[in-house]
Amino acid sequence: MSKATPSTSSSYAETDLANLVHPLTDHSRLAATAPLVIVAAEGCELIDERGRRILDGSAGLWTVNLGHGRADLVEAARRQMATVAYVATFGGVSSPPAIELAERIVDLAPPGLGGVFFVSGGSEANETAIKLARRHWVRDGRPEKAVVIAHDRGYHGLAGVTTTATRLDPYHGDFGPEAPQIVEVSAPYTYRCDAGVPCDPETCPVCTGSALESRIREVGGDRVAAVVVEPVFGSGGVIVPPPGYLRAVREVCDRHEVLLIVDEVITGFGRTGSWFASGAQEVTPDLLTFAKGVSSGYVPLGGVLVSDQLWDELRDPAAEPGFLMHGFTHSGHPVACAVGLANIAAIEAEGILDRVEEATATLAGLLEPLSDLPEVGEIRQAGLMVGIELVADKQTRARFPKDLTRGRQVADQARDRGLLTRGLLDDILCLAPPFTISDEQLARAVTIVGESIVATRQPV
Fold first, then answer.
1. pLDDT band at 6 (very low <50, low <70, confident <90, very high)
2. pLDDT digits (tens, 9 = 90+) for 17-29
3. What CATH number does the domain containing 59 carry?
4. To 10 degrees, what angle do helices 439-455 and 352-367 make?
5. Is the pLDDT of residue 433 over 70?
6. Range(s) of the domain holding residue 379
7. Does 398 map to a domain?
8. I need a labelling partner for 405 at 20 to 30 A (CA). Which of 135, 181, 202, 433 fits?
9. pLDDT (tens digit, 9 = 90+) per residue, 327-368?
10. DSSP annotation string for 376-393
11. Are 150 and 127 in contact (CB under 8 A)?
């Protein structure tokens, strides 16, 4: 097949369809729907090739926390590129931005975390955390402790092991055998709790951590390396665990000598109103992963914070050979780290965390009337993370037939009306705007969501 000739018209769609493979996209229907080509962005709005302004209701992918077109972040990247554009951190080589950013992140993180390993994104961060957890037990003389327990509805990336640790069915099946040594446990999804509905979080075995403890005993604590969990289950449907769940998981892990990996790829750097959601809950994990918001998505960046104990083990002079045989080409990339420093400085200087708290309360009030719609089963919110679960029957909580793709229809309608949002699995709509969004824009976004739900109703 010959290569397509690039389009010379004002539209990029034809060339896109001929050459670009999109992640998480139904390519069988993309030609019919046409790619959305964004040519510019300002603040919380995207501008497509036709000049339409579209509210960025998902902050890219929970990422562009400070909004688009930030001159300070662009200048930080330009200045660093003009100084030194690339330095590999292999073999003990470093650069000032990597050193300074590691220090800043340790200062902001929950107490007891003392070292930062930089990567380019969330999948790499969680892949690294799992490897570091297993390395700990290998070096401890217990290599059989290799099993990682992951929650259903959890999303931890789409690399090697992390694809299997992502316990969402549609991500499996097309790619051959799954990675071994990954075991599933129920998520604290109170609206559809595996322990039964209605769910009483104070006594529910899932929500109190008893189900996790039983799972560890079933597998054998002598085989379990780590438990991985999101403080809020993002891509799994904005599942907000009941208060105390993360603390219960920490306590279960401690009782069974299991490391705790907290995935803050989405929640880190302000999404729920604090620097880290685990810190706000006074929980210190053994490994904490981050990405997305650390640079507001301007340059790919992520990382893993390790506990003081794991950090001391890595630096132990008696642990020769002490090589960490793991790394990525862009680990500690100086341009990315420079943007990360500028991003943190802006969050602090502009009181962004306070704005997140204000916007959270405003958004909660705006969302309340949506609960009256017959299709809205539950609205879940943690900071500027919202999941709106659509149901066919409010009383029984029955889902719509999958082939109806109701959530996707609503997201498509919203796009046509000027809001870019996401339809997650199981007809759950997601809102996760930039932190800099105005109250007027929040109101417009919620209005569009409501209109789009109504517009996609099937005629009776």
1. very low
2. 999 999 999 999 9
3. 3.90.1150.10
4. 30
5. yes
6. 36-69+352-455
7. yes
8. 433
9. 999 999 999 999 999 999 999 999 999 999 999 999 999 999
10. EEEEEESSS-EEEEE-SB
11. no
- Same domain flag for 391 and 330: no
Q: Token digits for 74?
A: 């662009």
Reading the block at residue 237, the tokens are: 């449907």
Are residue 248 and residue 181 in the same domain, yes or no?
yes
Could you give the number of structural domains in the chain?
2
| Backbone dihedral angles phi then psi of residue 203, each to the nearest 5 degrees | -120, -10
pLDDT exceeds 50 at position 278 = yes
Domain boundary among 330, 349, 368: 349
Q: How far apart are CA 368 and CA 375, in angstroms?
A: 14
- 65 and 91 part of one domain: no
Tally: H helices and E strands in the chain? 15, 15
Decide if 16 is inside a domain.
no
Q: What is the rounded CA–CA span in Å between residue 101 and residue 99? A: 6
Residues 306 and 379 in one domain: no
Whole-angstrom Cα distance, residue 80 to residue 284? Answer: 33
**Residue 10 reports pLDDT greater than 70:** no
CA 335, 338, 340, 341: dihedral to nearest 10 degrees?
180
**Whether pLDDT at 161 is above 80:** yes
**Do 65 and 79 belong together in one domain?**
no
Confidence of residue 11 (pLDDT cuts 50, 70, 90): confident
**Mean pLDDT across the stretch 11-38?**
93
Omega before 321 within 30 of 0, i.e. cis: yes
pTM summary value: 0.96
| 274 occurs within a structural domain | yes
Q: How many Cα atoms are found within 13 Å in the side-chain-facing hemisphere of 100?
A: 15
Q: Is residue 305 a part of any domain in this protein?
A: yes
Order of strands across the sheet that contains 386-390: 376-381, 386-390, 428-431, 422-424
Which residues touch 379 (CB under 8 Å, ≥6 apart)?
367, 368, 370, 371, 386, 387, 388, 389
